[in-house]
Design a protein that fits this description.
The chain is mainly alpha-helical. It is built from 26 helices and 4 strands.
Length: 667
Amino acid sequence: MMWYEIFKFEIRYRLKRSDTYIFFAFLLLFSIVGVDFIMQGVDIGGIKMNAPLVIAKTMGAITGLSMILASMIMGVPILRDFEYNIASLMYTNPIKKRDYLLGRFLGSFAILLFVFSGVLIGMIIGEFMPWHKPTDYHPFRFYSYLKPFITVTLPTLFFGASLFFVSGALSKKLVVVYTQGIILFVVFMLTKAITNDFAQALFDPFSLTTLTSITESWTVAERNVQAIPFSGVLLLNKLFWVLFGIVILFFGYMKFSFTVVKDKRRFKKKAQPFDIQSNNGSNIEIPEFKTAHGLKSKWNELRHFSWFYFVSVCKQPSFWAIVICGMIIILINSVNLGTVYGVDSFPATYFIVEELQESSMYFFLIILVFYSGELIWKERSVDLNLIYDATSMSNFLNLAGKFTGLIGIYIVLMISLILSGVIFQTMNGYYNFEFQVYFNGFFLEILPFLILYTFIAFFVQVLTNNKFIGIFIVLVIFILITVIGAFGYDHALYLFGGSSLGTYSNMNGYGHFMTPYLIIKSYWLTFGILMLIVASIVSVRGTETNLIKRLKASKYRISNSIMKLGASMGVIFILLGGYIFYNTNILNTYWTNSEKTEFRVAYEKTLKKFEYFPQPKIIAVNLTVELYPKSRDYTVEGFYMLKNTSDSIISEVHIQKIIESDVALNS
């Protein structure tokens, strides 16, 4: 059985690769805190954290969020043969197409099941973590975890595996595989827009709406203990997606060509005769040229690089597929634009900007993560890297050109979003467009965020020298930064990118938050430029790919211009960091979340005994208040009239002030 031999080879090959265990470890660790992360901020109304419903929903959500890992595993088995130039060797052997595809698919799917078993194991381990309260959990039952893994996670994985495997086999392009994952997310969003409850539950690929539909009439007691029945709409939902996956596999089998060279006779043009002239070489003149190394020539190189990589991304059908998916999501969400809590309101610009930001951020991140990898690997993907490496072109200028080309993509998409927002406002009879709010929302808030994470993506791709591992590490870094901020480690000096700009107000815009926001972003942008400089001097050039050897050779790549740029960025980074520290920790008192919690605990313990202590009450107020918004200052003159309204004698008057207040009482 040839398919079985290919199946065993695929498993042995994957088990030898480190990325298999990295993916497993990531899902294991993420699933340990999965319930806490997925259910954060969700009111589950007295339901235990290990109730069957909570476990099933958490598994469905983690599976949906982790489909990118499924695409990395299932999309590459056929692509790998072309990447290592062994496709012709494989296809000319006496191997049947059925055995080849079946062995590759089943072997990869077995590895996929191993990787996603980390979800099952991680959630089981997570139940016994010391930070959980015993009162929030039922006694442990293995079946409560096993059943939703089989009934909720596995069918979704099979459909995703079929989709990614076939798209990779037919297109032979990894970006197309990633695009299918985006389309799957769009399908999920489309199901949310379906008004029929049964249809919405039936077509949800991750079964989150399905689980809600099944249990919406259950009591709290039933949701706490009753297992999710694998029948009714849940069974139909899984049958639909499994059958859809089988159809995709059958379609892929029929369309897959077990040949290396395609038949292009239909497009073959008739050869045109041409004259051959002999030349003995005596009258050949070699043109004279001069190489320029000044600032102007470097600027021209950067400009041409940027435009070339910008156009190369725009020409890719997969890029436009992502853009179209994004536009579909925005179109779906536009139904609720101008509606707050079910009440129609004026489509004010600040509200439209917030909605567009929320709808488009996911797709910006997809473009950032995937196309940073595509651009870093562009020359190597078409086997032109050695030709490029033999030229005198600067590593930094080439890397900066790829970077600015990708930034140009962001800018064009943002302009498109702004135009769509203006069109929506016009269609609803609202003409106060406030373009400054659009500019601030996209170009001062979203664009710096994307620029900073593009720095990270380029840096990681260069260091890892592995497109898939690089993409995975970038996603992990993004999650870690989010988690670190959520746990209170949010000081601008060490939380990458700092905090967000804040909420826009029609009264005073962004208020006094704009200036410190721009300073903090400048601080991190200089750090990002330093990362790009480091990436340029350790990037792969030639045939040497070992990171240690690249680091040793980096000292020979540091030119005077790179040294000056790096030194200047380093000085600016230190100066801005010092200025931020001076304002946050010296001029003001910086409190971490743990310090604030400790203060509140001590506050309650210390003052609890005074809870019912008689105090005078304010019975009259006469104040003259002068406000100075620009300087954030005010003056107050007047009086409060206090009266003892109790029947007891007051021997002490207690005065409370805020934590950072320097108010003193003068008697």
